[in-house]
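Issue 218. Parser rejects a valid record. Input:
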Amino acid sequence: MTLNSRTFGGVLENLLYISKQKKSSLASYLGYDVSYINKWVNSKNLPSFKRAVEICENIAKFIIKSLDNDTRKHLVEYFELERGDNDFLYEYIKNTLQEVYFESSNNKGTQNIPMTSVSQEYYNVNCEVKPTLLPKAIREEIEFNASVGNDLDIIIAINLFSIDYKDKVSLVDMKKYFYELSKYTNVKINFLIGFEGENKEEILNSLLTINILSSYPKLNFKLFNCAISKNTAFFIIKDRFLSTTIFSNDGECLFSNTSKNKNLINEFYYSLEYKLKNKGKYISLIKSPMEMIEDQTYVQYIMNSELRCLLGSINEFFMPPDLFMEIAHRIFGDRPKLINELKKINVFLHNATYKCKLKVLIYELELRKYMSSGCLHFFNTPVTLTFKERERHIEYIEKILKENNKVEIRLVDGNFVEDFRHADNPSFYLSKNLKFIKVHPVSGKNDYSILRDNEIKKMVDNLFDKLWNYGNDLILVDKDDILERISKSISYTRIISENLGEDIH
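Output the parser choked on:
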């Protein structure tokens, strides 16, 4: 048997032939009348977009269940595959069906357009070979709709582990790009991110995910953990635009198909929307500093075990008790309930947290910035401290390090991913049961992102362990060396304070 033309029906027919299965058996398994299967095989019709993903998955399961030793061998030989285990075959069949389904759908969408129409190519299908993750055709479409004031209701679906390095780096600027567009029109983005496959670039992937969660908080952006085929990425603007990108096994973008067929676009949109609602897991919960304090989430964190944190900016940690309350009153003074909770937090920090095992990574550059600018993120609320206040703070850090061997501080001297050097340094806080990320504060927004998804929690736990043990080329471990650098910072602050006075920041 030769492979039929690359259509959904052709591939389905070949799979049934190789596995020696009847159309009626497949129909029964799927819960469809056999007439539907006949129409699919004969390319007279296609499954509904709303159920296409589910149907492709179930067809793959049916084929796998039906295989015996001979049919399995024939399937592997026919498709020239390197492996024949069930998991690999299932993924291969599912992905192949989804790819040809989309291709067949695009072709169906253009059938009623006269070949003489000048709009045929523009309004229906365009193909770009070896594009970037956000190719020119997508950017042009986005910017056109933004320029005329059209709302942008977007779904993006991509498997993080399957794309190559350059495309991962491009995702760092993606939220910024959409945030700038949101100044001109309404932008809503649901981002489905998959973590299937081998996590070969663990530090890069984890820091990228944290960056996506923590940047541009004013953008209407939701991130979901959702099973996404490793060889495809989808970009959809509801009512307006659809792009599917196909990847090679090494993560390179091979080509991108785009369409402006409204029926096709929206059926695909609703299919992915159904997937995120029913199978997607919302990665995090946003809380303001006031919520973190008043509902005692913060207390739960500092009272927990296995405390670790990475500080991308200097925060309320290691402040002397009197300075802690001075800054608390400065920021939250008109909120008695909040002040009362902050008093409890202050007591817990000094009588429990700083006397237990605690691991803290601090970017040395941020420490130096703090000493020169005085900018402190007190419960993620920016506030400027005087030289004397900074001096008191740093001296207390020095005191804790000298007196308590259970508290470990290591300094980060550089960037873990060089291409992220222009992005804000991340801050995250980990305990055994609670993990959260500091969202980069902007005017009116200074939230925390509480991690809910277990897969992401595990990623961040593993990330901290890898960063903590990264090596002396980037991580300063020696306690005496760290104390010496802190002492120099204190001296620097004292000199400036004595010579320039308290009014200089």
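Fixed in the parser; the record now loads. The chain has a mean pLDDT of 86.
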